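1st attempt posting a full record on here, be nice pls
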Amino acid sequence: LWALFQALAMAMAAGPERQVSALIRLTVNAGQAKPAAPVGPALGQHRLNIMAFCKEFNARTQHIKPDVPMSVAITAYKDNSFEFTVKSPSTSYLLKKAAGLQLGSRKPGHEIAGQVTLKHVYEIAKIKQTDPLCQYISLESICKSIIATARSMGIEVKRELEK
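the predicted structure (as tokens):
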């Protein structure tokens, strides 16, 4: 909700001549935006140039490993133009990759699905801090949030992994 509010505020700051027609949120794999679903239908219903979005998104995410799901917030304007911001992958995705898991625990708090170290948590926090909405949040607060997410997924956070 806060991201939606900030996107509206940025759009309104662009000037009165550009009226926002829609805010679209998608999850697209890095470097793999195609005019097919989910990108095509989501942008097509607002009469946006799908190929322009796909080319620009793929160019912005070419440095990221393919198959990494990236969140995208697209602001569509009434003149059929658009702007978008690419956010980092979700915390749950990064935690599962760090723990080497496909899924989290079915019973979090009762079963431990995997383990990560504080170093993993710190590295994930540094990635999350690059998001536009997290720039001004302290690294410690982001780490606490990541630890809470790990706990809710059944992933145990340890100082060091046992050998």
